[in-house]
Amino acid sequence: MASAAASHEEGQQHPIKLYLLVWVLLFVLSAGSYMVDYVELQGLLRWSLIIIFMLLKAGLIVAVFMHMAWERLALAYAILLPPVAVLVFLAIMTAESDYTLISRLTFFGTP
């Protein structure tokens, strides 16, 4: 009984190299995020890069430190699909709001 528990506990360990690699990747992504401000990028490029760096860092943290990379696919879908659905809904509503603004300006004129 003790050997089964010890082998199960031993199987749960991940190599320290993986955590160090993720730490280095997070450091590089954070440096890239700070470089966006340092280079003083503006407009859509700035916000796109900031969001891309943010999503990459969040994905690394969820996959490795929250052990989502080793979970069953059904559990990963149960956790990850609702935020993806919210983002799709947000994109649809953004397009709808642009259409509403354009149609109001067309029919009612500029304020």
TrEMBL record:
Q: Which InterPro entries match?
A: Cyt_c_oxidase_su4_prok
Where located? Cell membrane
Q: How does it sit in the membrane?
A: Multi-pass membrane protein
* UniProt key word Metal-binding: no
Main localization, broad class: membrane
Its transmembrane ranges are: 18-36, 48-68, 74-95
Name the UniProt key words of this record, in alphabetical order.
Cell membrane, Membrane, Transmembrane, Transmembrane helix
Which Pfam family is an annotated match for this chain, by its short name? COX4_pro
Protein name in UniProt: Cytochrome C oxidase subunit IV family protein
Lineage at the top is: Bacteria, Pseudomonadati, Pseudomonadota, Alphaproteobacteria, Rhodobacterales
